[in-house]
Write a structure and sequence with these properties.
Alpha-Beta Plaits, alpha+beta, elongated, 2 domains, five-stranded antiparallel β-sheet, Beta-Lactamase, 12 strands
């Protein structure tokens, strides 16, 4: 929005416009007002749509700014990334005797190109930031995001009387899927498992891809009982929703998971401990509970005990 506001006001100053707006969208029917100034600004932002669809459609088909009427009181400049339309820049002098000149058209064309380039660069940066925060296979947030989120969760729990939980989730027998059906099936199993975990934890916990065949779920407002209930729900939902045909051919069998659960208040010593130590102990304790779940036969949940919290 800062890019759009600054570009709009720079354009208005350059051609001495008294009103202006920026509309974003790939076609005349999809344009929506996202920035505006002047007497009609509030109305434009509330209404959203650009006025005079046919005039707007013609303007989007051009590559340069042009006056929208013989009176030369309205200038329209398309925002284009070289392949598709991004939107439209509109400037006006409805009550001024001044009329926009051909020089103003050329100036506005250059400013519109600058705004379009800034939009593309901003969108690209956001996509890169999003990719850096998410696992490319499952789309879930990654270990870096887990570390940040877990720090906040531990600090919030220590400041309040509430507890929190961390769950280590391991996909059972993923190596068998890889060896029998191929690595594409293994990747599909991980994607479906991540989707199922995210669905089951919605509104209650945050799901992260830890790496390999492991996921982590953070429940920020939990008790041992509610954490156990969520873990059981995660386990059953994965088992119920992962089997089925694959795009590459063949059937993916039912996927099951083993889960180890640890709570912050379940650790032996919490008061006076640095958050980094508590985070590490939570993860280690949940991981040990996970190994007990796997040793006990898999497709089950184990709640950590004080014996799991050992150095």
């Amino acid at each position: 929005m800062r890019v759009l506001d600054e570009g709009l006001h720079a354009a208005a100053l350059a051609v001495r416009a008294t009103e202006g707006a920026v509309f974003l969208g790939h076609s005349a029917d999809l344009l929506s007002c996202v920035a505006a100034f002047g007497p009609e600004a509030t109305l434009l932002l509330q209404r959203g749509a650009a006025p005079n669809r046919e005039v707007v459609k013609r303007a989007l088909g051009r590559r340069a700014a042009q006056c929208a009427s013989p009176a030369r009181q309205v200038l329209l400049a398309p925002l284009h990334d070289g392949k598709k339309s991004l939107g439209l820049l509109q400037l006006a002098n409805p009550s001024s005797p001044d009329r926009f000149s051909e020089h103003d058209e050329r100036v506005l064309t250059g400013i519109a190109r600058y705004i379009a380039t800034s939009l593309v660069q901003t969108s690209s940066l956001r996509r890169q930031e999003g990719l850096a925060a998410h696992d490319p296979l499952t789309g879930l947030r990654n270990v870096r995001e887990l570390n940040n989120d877990l720090t906040r969760a531990v600090n919030a729990a220590r400041r309040s009387e509430r507890d929190m939980a961390l769950m280590f989730v391991d996909v059972d027998y993923l190596k068998r899927v890889n060896s029998k059906l191929g690595h594409a099936a293994g990747s599909e199993a991980l994607k479906r498992t991540g989707k199922a975990l995210d669905e089951a934890a919605a509104g209650v916990g945050d799901v992260f891809r830890f790496g390999g065949d492991e996921f982590v779920v953070v429940q920020k407002n939990a008790s041992k009982e509610s954490a156990r209930a969520l873990a059981d729900h995660l386990r059953s939902h994965v088992a119920a929703s992962t089997a089925g045909p694959m795009r590459s051919g063949g059937e993916l069998p039912k996927i099951t998971v083993s889960i180890g659960v640890a709570t912050l208040r379940g650790l032996r010593h919490v008061n006076g401990q640095p958050p980094s130590d508590l985070k590490s102990r939570l993860m280690t304790t949940a991981d040990r509970a996970l190994f007990r779940a796997k040793d006990a036969g898999r497709n089950r949940v184990e709640l950590a005990t004080s014996r799991d919290d050992r150095h």
